[in-house]
Design goal:
The complex is a heterodimer.
Chain A (H helix, E strand, L loop, with lengths): L7 H15 L4 H29 L2 E4 L10 E4 L1 H24 L2 H5 L2 H17 L3 H20 L4 H32 L4 H9 L4 H19 L7 H5 L5 H26 L4 H24 L3 H22 L2 H32 L10 H4 L1 H15 L7 H15 L1 H27 L19 H23 L1 H16 L2 H7 L1 H7 L1
Helix pairs in contact in A: 1-2, 1-5, 2-3, 3-5, 3-11, 3-14, 3-19, 5-6, 6-7, 6-11, 7-9, 8-21, 9-11, 11-13, 11-14, 12-13, 12-18, 13-14, 13-18, 14-16, 14-17, 14-19, 14-20, 16-18, 16-19, 17-18, 19-20, 21-22
Chain B lengths: L1 H19 L4 H22 L24 H32 L15
Classes of the chains: A mainly alpha, B mainly alpha.
Chain lengths: 508, 117
């Protein structure tokens, strides 16, 4: 089905950014535009998802140039679900920014850049053209560089050096891979590539190209040995910015991997084995890293790395059950990781520190708030019946039945260590008696906040906690959607036929 | 021509990576620029080089039968050049700011944040 609705989520975010640029010196108006714009964005994304669910895959040919000659935007269930989850997380971050981002940062264009980042994310999820995917990646990283450095504090600049260098390198490798793939297949449309790559006689060259893609996306999604930029930079910006990064940017790399390695490249045992080994080491090193850290945000950064491994290892198993688990885990992970970084921002506001030894007494003074914060923390571990539990059923089942003992051990190891880490955070931050607040003259502590500011801090955390509770208690529905996505990914015939109606007819 | 371009591409990638592995921030930027140019030439090379063969279909034919100068890689390179230009400009400003904050060009000194709050 052709429908212009596919491009609306991208255009809408772009429009918000433009409108905010016209109100550059008026942060109050920007705040209103951002929140109301993101509410409408959630509605648009839900509309897109229902349309995709009713009518099947939707496409939009830019400038009416028929695929594969023009750029095509495609929304299958996977894209539509991710756009919806991104919109919900975006709304939460937008609300959280109201109180978390100081006005000086807003005056340097925080909100427009944030919306350009969301436009880039939606574009990357919806495009059906591999070079266009590269362009969206670039829009995302340029926006993320600005967000990471905005304010120009020394730690931010230092983190930005590492983030910047490795992300540029990843983009260049991705570009190289696209160039080589174009040289091999002579097309950039992903559906067309799927047909042409399968027909290339020289499988060795295809394998090399696939590895180039794996490295490019691997740096972006922070898999073992390429992840060192992530814990070096994610703890430096304000919590709202870290929440966008932690929740969404690494998952974009995983999305790109899931898309490219199921659609464009055929199943290859070497690539799959490589992916399983790397992902297994990602889980192990990430969770061990989380154990030794004392900065709450660094702990969460290492947990991101560890949990990226779950999704990549499932892709390495390369069966429908495993991909179902990966997709389900991704839906849960975006919501929970975004929430976790906002939680770290709240903890910082209360105690004036990120250091786990100096945080404490949270449960003693804020018992109801602690119960709210328990939801994202224990969802992450996967304590039943919270949302992390359900995708792990699929993952473990796939690992046990179709993977092998190495995968099962890695998954179990990651889960146990995550439990240990979160238990440590819980014991140190919530149960341990409080220490005196540090002397910080220019710091506004939580108890000095007005009610409106407190609401601005707590509402987004409550919103995302509610979403993860919905995922948990409607797990059967989310699982059904993930299954549908997995079957679409593993049998891309329908996708190819929708994007290229003439070509597929020719082949039959 | 192909051989020459292939060698140039390899040299640019190699030199770029070497410069990126140095400790100086200025050399890091130079490395990024070299690798970016290497990628552009690689795309140009892989689009097949045809001299004086514009991709115009003759009036009496429906498709191009001979080798022709493919316009797609050129469009890709143009896009990539524009993007890398923006990124390099950002890189220079970023590293200038870092230099102002740290008073050092040495990348090994960019790790004072590990003992923060």
């Amino acid at each position: 089905m052709t429908s212009n609705l596919v491009i609306v989520p991208v255009l809408w975010q772009f429009l918000i950014a433009v409108a905010q640029m016209f109100s550059w010196f008026n942060p109050r108006l920007q705040r209103k535009l951002s929140v109301s714009g993101n509410v409408i964005q959630v509605l648009i994304a839900s509309w897109l998802l229902t349309e995709v669910y009713r009518q099947g895959i939707l496409t939009m040919n830019a400038g009416k140039w028929p695929a594969p000659f023009g750029i095509v935007f495609v929304s299958d269930t996977f894209s539509a679900v991710l756009v919806l989850i991104t919109s919900i997380s975006g709304l939460a971050v937008s609300l959280f920014s109201l109180a978390n981002i100081v006005e000086a940062r807003m005056r340097f264009g925080y909100f427009p850049i944030m919306h350009l980042l969301f436009a880039g994310l939606n574009g990357a999820f919806l495009t059906g053209d591999i070079f266009n995917l590269y362009v969206w990646f670039e829009i995302i990283i340029i926006s993320s560089f600005v967000l990471l450095t905005i304010g120009g504090e020394k730690p931010q600049l230092e983190g930005a050096v590492k983030y910047f260098t490795l992300n540029i390198l990843a983009s260049t490798i991705f570009l190289t891979a696209i160039g080589v793939l174009y040289g091999l297949a002579g097309t950039l449309n992903m559906a067309d590539l799927a047909l042409k790559v399968a027909a290339i006689p020289n499988k060795g060259l295809v394998e090399v190209t696939a590895i180039l893609f794996l490295v490019g996306f691997g740096i972006k999604s922070a898999i073992f040995p390429l992840y060192f930029w992530l814990p070096a930079s994610y703890h430096t910006p304000p919590a709202a910015i870290a929440a966008i990064f932690g929740g969404l940017l690494t998952k974009l790399g995983v999305y790109a991997m899931l898309r490219v390695f199921t659609l464009v490249f055929f199943e290859d045992p070497i690539i799959d084995t490589l992916m399983i080994i790397l992902a297994g080491l990602t889980i192990i090193t990430g969770s061990l890293g989380a154990m030794v850290q004392t900065n709450v945000r660094k702990i969460f950064s290492y947990l991101i790395i560890s949990h990226i491994g779950y999704m990549v290892i499932a892709l390495g198993i390369h069966t429908e059950l495993a991909v179902t688990g990966a997709v389900f885990y991704m839906i849960h992970d975006i919501v929970v990781k975004t929430n976790l970084f906002m939680v770290s921002g709240l903890l910082y506001r209360v105690q004036g520190t990120h250091h786990i030894d100096r945080l404490g007494g949270f449960y003693q003074y804020y018992p109801r708030l602690s119960l709210l914060l328990a939801i994202p923390l224990f969802s992450l571990v996967g304590v039943p019946p919270l949302s992390g539990f359900w995708p792990k059923i699929d993952l473990f089942k796939a690992a046990y039945l179709e993977g092998g003992s190495f995968i099962t051990i890695c998954l179990a190891f990651g889960t146990v260590i995550t439990l240990l880490v979160i238990a440590r955070v819980w014991a140190e931050v919530f149960w341990r008696p409080a220490e005196n607040l540090p002397e910080r003259p220019n710091f506004r502590f939580w108890h000095l906040f007005t009610l409106a500011e407190k609401i601005q801090y707590i509402t987004p955390i409550a919103l995302l906690s509610a979403v993860s509770l919905i995922i948990a208690f409607r797990a059967a529905d989310v699982h059904r959607i993930s299954q549908k996505i997995a079957s679409e990914l593993m049998n891309p015939k329908n996708y190819i036929q929708t994007v290229l109606p003439d070509k597929s007819a020719e082949q039959q | 021509m192909e051989i020459l371009l292939a060698i140039v591409t390899g040299l640019l990638y190699g030199a770029g990576l070497f410069m990126m592995l140095r400790r100086s921030m200025v050399k890091l930027i130079i490395g990024l620029i070299l690798i970016g140019n290497g990628a552009n030439i690689l795309i140009f090379l892989l689009g097949r080089i045809a001299k004086g063969k514009p991709p115009i279909i003759p009036a009496d034919a429906k498709v191009l039968t001979e080798l022709y100068a493919d316009p797609v890689p050129q469009a890709l390179i143009l896009t990539a050049i524009v993007i890398s230009f923006g990124l390099q400009a950002f890189a220079i400003v970023l590293f200038k700011k870092v230099y102002q904050a740290l008073h050092s060009d040495d990348l090994d000194t960019v790790n004072t944040i590990d003992d923060d709050l």
